[in-house]
Amino acid sequence: MKVPPFLKSGDCIGIAATARWVTAEQLQPAIDLFTSWGLRVKVAPNVHTVDFQLAGNAQSRAHGLQELIDDNEVQAIVIARGGYGTVQTIDVLDFTRFLDNPKWIAGYSDITVLHAHLNSKGIATIHSTMPISFPDATADALENLRQCLFGELKVFASSEKIDKEFSPVSGNLVGGNLSVLYSLLGSDSWHHCESPILFIEDVDEMLYHLDRMLWGMYRAQMLSQVKAIVCGGFTQMKDNTKQFGFPTDNPWGATAKEIIQSMADKLKIPVAFGFPAGHLSDNRAFYLGRPTLLKCTEGRAEIHY
To answer: Quick one: CA torsion of 34, 96, 305, 170, rounded to 10 degrees?
Structure first.
């Protein structure tokens, strides 16, 4: 795996939009924060373009990211916002030069497309909060992003006590949003890597959808080499009950945690819950596509780089 160069004061960070648009006012807090870290900022030309939900058509969104990829002055790129649309750009982008001289790409949720694509090609990335969420992000989430960009993050720990101790597991940490990963099955953006540790998170899904996605990945042999599962937030999950607008109560019968634990048991691998990452205000940054050691320390799961 290739680890892009870490940033230093005076470097330039780019902001791209491969999915939804943001206004200049929404982007300003991120620009102010990056500037306070000693960084210069370049914004892709399409970031403020409004094309219904998207920041321009697929070609203009891909072109905006491509400009920052090809700009030798830009050492890292953070995606402004998620939503949906990154998958429409992935086959247009040219990563030929990038693979030889990679730079950090940061984001989460829909940006899982970029994480999976680049991690599959041996390039490390940063799973992190994005500029649209900076005003609501916790101080720890923003500090973790700074630490990742400047090469200071060494350990990422769960905020929950583990239910059961497990032996240390080493492997390459990959993954992201489960729904997006599931949508990439069968594509060249989602390949096996050696000894993967799988990180997953999701939001606003039916509980049976979660079960279906895990079984789909299992049957497609995408979980056959996974050494452990690491879980971020599973927020706003829904069920077939009156609480969620259904006429009758017909619950799935298992929580998100129980569904994931059941798959981990089937795979005979450990699972660690409660990592502060995903669709949360405390969406702390960490590296994907890097060799890691997952272990238990004083009742908590930790990822060591």
So the answer is: 150
